[in-house]
Amino acid sequence: MRVLLTGGAGYIGAHTAVALIEAGHDVIIVDDLSGTSAEAVARIETITGAAVPLLVADVRDEAAVAGFVAEHAPVDAVIHLAGLKAVGESMAEPVRYYDVNLGTTIALLKVMDTAGIRSLVFSSSATVYGTPEQLPLTEESPTGIDLANPYGKTKRIIEEILSDAAAADPGLAVVSLRYFNPVGAHTSGLIGEDPNGIPNNLMPFVSRVAIGSLEQVAVFGDDYDTPDGTGLRDYIHVSDLAAGHVAALEHAASGYAVYNLGTGEPVSVLDLIAAFERASGRSIPQVIVARRPGDVAASYADPAKAQRELGWTADLSIDDACRDYWNWQTQNPDGYPRG
Ligand code: UDP
């Protein structure tokens, strides 16, 4: 298949591009490079030996994306990863989040319709569940419980839009993948996560402390109702996540489907820091601070549906993820070179 990857130069996109190419597919990428660098695409090419055409554009620019798709016709499927993803930022700038995340999706659906592309995989998030009523989370768990942040709401609204689009058009195959917490990096150390500024997420923050560019990790609360009092999450290696996209694409059938992509294994903040200390051989200073507003105590997947229907499971451990993240970090202490 030839696959259009929106946001394909980003963290999850670059790993998905590599996985697609290694599975025998062709990849073309549209990315506005607002959260990454063209170097990521060069490195996808280095890892795979394949040429990967890149259009630097905002996906809301329908004419540009349609032109790119026509130039590379036939395009068989789209994986839509372009979007804004910082929870805190979405509280400060909700309109921008709705504009970009919904706008890119709607523009893309229109381009797909015109070009006759019948298959779409969307990057959703376990955030859509809000505060879990029961764990582990299954795809039938209610969504939107106390969901306060615009980022999560955009993902939930997009899922509704996609479900409506699939219901109205029997030829359309749409899959939403609800990611748990992506971590790790490609084993080559050539591609990885490259956050702008000070990271918000735990593993990139811990890694910066290990390498000495940040002083200490603030652990957001140790008074949760969890075994060690710190938050539990389901950290999934980005290469496993990438493989989940390939499986979803290859199994996509007409209609709308949703899958959790997680390991099913809850890991605490303290567990993750300890795993990173082992992987890096560095000691990681840490301090307990107040809970971060909006955080849930625990969130982890029941990944059985993806295993049953897509034949996919997460194979890599938190130790693998820390090793690979550290390898990426030490080889690229300042992320991708920016030109
Ligand atoms: N966390 C933390 N310190 C940090 C960043 C995160 O203690 O500097 C905790 C956070 O409270 C949560 C877990 O680490 O329990 C994962 O947070 P992250 O922001 O990576 O992902 P989230 O699950 O919030 O999307």
Helix content: 40-55%
User: What is the element string, with H for helices and E for strands?
Assistant: EHEHEHEHHEHEEHEEEHEEHEEHH
Morphology: globular
C-alpha Rg (nearest Å):
19 Å
Instruction: Name the strands of the widest sheet in spatial order.
Output: 3-2-1-4-5-6-11
Strand content: 15-25%
Mean pLDDT: 97
Secondary structural class: alpha/beta
Number of helices: 11
Question: How is the main sheet built?
Answer: 7 strands, parallel
Low-confidence stretches: none
Distance between the termini: 32 Å
What molecules are bound to this protein? uridine-5'-diphosphate
Tell me the number of strands: 14
How would you characterize the overall build of this protein?
It is globular, with a radius of gyration of 19 Å. It is built from 11 helices and 14 strands. It has helices at residues 11-22, 39-48, 62-71, 87-92, 94-115, 150-168, 202-211, 238-251, 269-280, 304-310, 318-331, and strands at residues 2-6, 26-31, 54-56, 77-80, 119-125, 173-179, 181-183, 217-220, 232-233, 235-237, 255-261, 267-268, 286-289, 298-299. 40% of the residues lie in helices and 17% in strands. The strands form 4 sheets. The chain has a 7-stranded parallel sheet with strand order 3-2-1-4-5-6-11, with helices on both faces. It has 339 residues and is an alpha/beta fold. The model has no long low-confidence stretch (mean pLDDT 97). Helix 6 links the parallel strand 5 (119-125) and strand 6. Helix 1 packs parallel to helix 2, helix 3 packs parallel to helix 5 (94-115) and helix 5 (94-115) runs parallel beside helix 6. Bound molecules: uridine-5'-diphosphate (UDP). The site of uridine-5'-diphosphate (UDP) has 14 residues, from helix 7 and strand 8. Uridine-5'-diphosphate (UDP) is lined by residues 181, 200-202, 205, 217-220, 231, 233, 269, 292, 295.
